[in-house]
């Protein structure tokens, strides 16, 4: 056993090499199924939320309150949510914890792009779902430092991709399928920048 290539040791014995390749293939299949199941769960949850909001009816015009922004306070007078129009012309709903820190934001930008961000207690976005005006959609997961570590995306043309980054935010692995059906994979085991 002289060297390791893509996690599979190189052997002089072809049978041992074949067994190691089969083991690596099984690990890759388990990983792929995990990603697929995770994507199904996320898409199912998103579909449930969309269905829930789509079935809500607007109140009759006589019961509508009009304003540029709304502020929700708790019994102690602390701001717990804001909803309003941003300086740039977008609309944002921000939900805050009892310390006044934004923890969840839902936005619609002026160009029609939409997004949902989940923020940790330190103020770092940890998960974000964004739909751009061109139809591109991404689900991003970040570490405690706010660095993107995993991105699952779909281009406006329908090409899916999965990108994984190390603790420095450097892309180390990626899987994608082009709109023509060609699969690509990228693996960087160098550990370099």
Topology:
Elements: E1 4-5, E2 8-9, H1 14-54, E3 69-73, E4 79-85, E5 91-96, E6 102-108, E7 114-119, E8 125-131, E9 137-142, E10 148-154, E11 160-165, E12 171-177, E13 183-187
Antiparallel strand pairs: 1-2, 3-4, 4-5, 5-6, 6-7, 7-8, 8-9, 9-10, 10-11, 11-12, 12-13
Describe this entry's structure for a reader:
This protein has 193 residues and is an alpha+beta fold. It has a domain at 12-52. 21% of the residues lie in helices and 38% in strands. It has one helix spanning 14-54, and strands at 4-5, 8-9, 69-73, 79-85, 91-96, 102-108, 114-119, 125-131, 137-142, 148-154, 160-165, 171-177, 183-187. The strands form two sheets. The chain has an eleven-stranded antiparallel sheet, with no helix packed on it. It has a two-stranded antiparallel sheet with strand order 1-2. The two termini are 28 Å apart.
